[in-house]
Amino acid sequence: MSDTTASLRRKIDSAGELQSVVRTMKAMAASSIGQYEKSVRALADYACTVELGLGACLRKNGTASLPVQGKRPPSPKTITAVVFGSDQGLVGQFNDVAADYAVETLAALPAQAEVWAVGERVHARLEDAGLQLRGLFNVPNSVKAITPLVGKILLESGTRSSEDEGAELHIFHNRPHAGAVYTPVSQRLLPLDEEWQYSLAQRPWPTGYLPEIMGGDIATLRVLIGEYLFVSLFRACAESLASENASRLAAMQRADKNINELLAELKGTFHRLRQSGIDEELFDVVFGFEALRAEKK
To answer: Domain 24-251 is classified in which CATH homologous superfamily?
Structure first.
């Protein structure tokens, strides 16, 4: 055989060390998934409160009338898109799926889009697709780091909205999905969808006490819209990070399985080679003993 017991032992040790690294990464990915999914669940109650406030403002201001069927919204002059990806590897087709979905969706829109990428890898993928890129944001490494990122995105989108009142804001990200690990989704945040506004205005207040708007109707409405944008971007980022770690966890599980199979094969070869060496040594001892006994006779 080309391999010796010493070389096989080194391969077995190396595979064992690699497996320990893979299992550590599995544990880290599983832990990260939990914190991001927990943050999304915790955000749901706050999002519901913001939507109730928006509904109350829209009812009082009368800005949410029943949308006309078949009415087409005016074509936007500018479209800003935010695509969430990853900065790290070992995530399979995570960035390709998000980028391809964004490219396909933006191609169907009537105006050319300016794209902000969250993550170096998805940024490179979007650049290869020929999209007009405005900048790059770093991917948060914890739940606490999501809020500063959302603030930067809102600052950039607010600058664009002030330049063009009809500007659209779209977000693209991967969302955790049972059975498929994740699936790409998109959402138009600005301008607010008319049907969505109407549904909020028709939502009944959960208690018997009617809400009262303080501080000015328009000012309160603007603040609530800002909170709605914050919640939507925070949720999108957290879901993207949960999907990224789910993809990494699946990749590490496949790697762990492959290493187990490799270790079983290496150990089997090692034991066969070692047994063959022992047999050869025993044959030499028996042969030498028979030769000495023949000489004595």
So the answer is: ATP synthase, F1 complex, gamma subunit (3.40.1380.10)
